[in-house]
From TrEMBL:
<dbReference type="InterPro" id="IPR002104">
    <property type="entry name" value="Integrase_catalytic"/>
</dbReference>
<dbReference type="InterPro" id="IPR025269">
    <property type="entry name" value="SAM-like_dom"/>
</dbReference>
<feature type="domain" description="Tyr recombinase">
    <location>
        <begin position="146"/>
        <end position="330"/>
    </location>
</feature>
<dbReference type="Pfam" id="PF00589">
    <property type="entry name" value="Phage_integrase"/>
</dbReference>
<dbReference type="InterPro" id="IPR044068">
    <property type="entry name" value="CB"/>
</dbReference>
<dbReference type="Pfam" id="PF13102">
    <property type="entry name" value="Phage_int_SAM_5"/>
</dbReference>
<dbReference type="InterPro" id="IPR013762">
    <property type="entry name" value="Integrase-like_cat_sf"/>
</dbReference>
<keyword id="KW-0233">DNA recombination</keyword>
<protein>
    <recommendedName>
        <fullName>Integrase</fullName>
    </recommendedName>
</protein>
<keyword id="KW-0238">DNA-binding</keyword>
<comment type="similarity">
    <text>Belongs to the 'phage' integrase family.</text>
</comment>
<dbReference type="GO" id="GO:0006310">
    <property type="term" value="P:DNA recombination"/>
</dbReference>
<dbReference type="GO" id="GO:0015074">
    <property type="term" value="P:DNA integration"/>
</dbReference>
<dbReference type="GO" id="GO:0003677">
    <property type="term" value="F:DNA binding"/>
</dbReference>
<dbReference type="InterPro" id="IPR050090">
    <property type="entry name" value="Tyrosine_recombinase_XerCD"/>
</dbReference>
<dbReference type="InterPro" id="IPR011010">
    <property type="entry name" value="DNA_brk_join_enz"/>
</dbReference>
<feature type="domain" description="Core-binding (CB)">
    <location>
        <begin position="21"/>
        <end position="125"/>
    </location>
</feature>
């Protein structure tokens, strides 16, 4: 190198010459990588769907958009705005009339899309397919804390009264609802439950890594009452169907998450619960709240039983109502404790 000359330094601002990659090719690259990382099939399906929604919107709105290298943070922010304020819920769904649905997706749904797209572009950047990284400064939207994301004990009692246990479907649904409240299982874990995953001697449910959200082996304790219900349901299944699935339709097919969520909503409406969101996930919130707030089980034990990877997620789910706060205050007030001790001395 000649004296007095300086070597050009590479910085993050330096534009690298990279080959143009189509969206289809980029998606194939990311999906192949995620499969190699061991992501569950359900997660892979969700990845494909969310990325497809984004690329379809992008190519429709920007006709000259052809390569993933051309995506900027401005495009991503415009898409987030579209999801929040323009996209109709259930748009493109084959079984739901989207024209009757409200406009604007929930904050939770939008954040799921942001997380997926962030992982998508981070992978392409880390593997050297794009530069710069368009999601480097992309942030999640702020979510309001939902104080009604669980049921009260009175609502749970009313719901449990609704299934007609004298017929197969009603009894199956009663067992499913009981198991959700007894174990905190995710809906996918429940509808996919098989006979060999139940240890009746413990009693407990044993889920392998391929069956849980974080691919962690998990043991889920259940009550003897719930174990008895599961035994009865399995006997009923075997009397009519050749299946190892625990929760099946009247034709013997494994239940889908969508079908079971519809059943949960049906029973909640019959119980007079019409203003709250009703899904299996709300039952999971309810289970966690009762375990921690009512039963005083420590949050780390509940985290392990429920399979939460991040305890902050669990804390967000367990919101205290005004009634909970009042009861906790009355039970723990230092002033009232001192007054009570003085009364006892008198």
């Amino acid at each position: 190198m000649a004296k007095g000359t300086k070597r050009a330094r590479y910085t993050s601002a330096t534009k690298r010459e990279l080959p143009n990659i189509t969206f289809d090719r980029a998606t194939d690259i990311v999906i192949s990588g995620k499969i190699a990382e061991g992501l569950r099939e359900r997660t892979i399906i969700d990845y494909k769907k969310i990325v497809r929604y984004f690329t379809e919107w992008l190519t429709q709105k920007y006709e000259d958009m052809e390569y993933v290298n051309d995506v900027t943070i401005e495009h991503l922010r415009a898409y987030i705005h579209y999801l929040r304020y323009e996209r109709r819920r259930y748009e493109g769904h084959t079984n739901i009339d989207a024209t009757k649905q409200p406009v604007g997706l929930s904050e939770t749904t939008v954040n799921i899309a942001i997380r997926t797209l962030t992982a998508y572009f981070n992978y392409l950047y880390a593997e050297g397919f794009i530069d710069p990284n368009p999601v480097e400064r992309l942030k999640l939207i702020k979510q309001d804390v939902d104080m009604t994301n669980n049921f009260t004990n009175e609502e749970v009692a009313r719901i449990l009264e609704q299934p007609e246990q004298r017929d197969f479907v009603g009894f199956r649904d009663y067992v499913g609802i009981s198991l959700l409240l007894d174990s905190g299982l995710r809906i996918g874990e429940l509808v996919g439950l098989t006979v060999d995953e139940i240890d009746f001697s413990a009693p407990q449910i044993v889920l392998g890594g391929g069956r849980t959200k974080g691919r962690y082996f998990r043991i889920v304790p259940i009550s003897t009452y719930c174990a008895k219900l599961l035994k009865q349901l399995i006997e009923e299944n075997r009397a009519h169907f050749d299946t190892d699935s625990v929760f099946v339709s009247s034709l013997g097919d494994q239940l889908t998450t969508n079908h079971f969520n519809k059943r949960l909503k049906f029973y909640a409406e019959r119980a007079g619960i019409k203003t709250k969101k009703v899904t299996a996930h709300v039952y999971r919130h309810t289970w966690a709240k009762i375990m921690i707030v009512d039963k005083k089980i420590d949050i780390y034990t509940v985290q392990k039983m429920g399979g939460w990877k991040d305890i902050r997620t669990l804390r967000r789910y367990v919101q205290l109502s005004t009634e909970d706060l009042r009861r906790s205050h009355d039970e723990g007030s230092p002033l009232m404790a001192i007054r009570d001790s003085r009364r006892k001395r008198i």
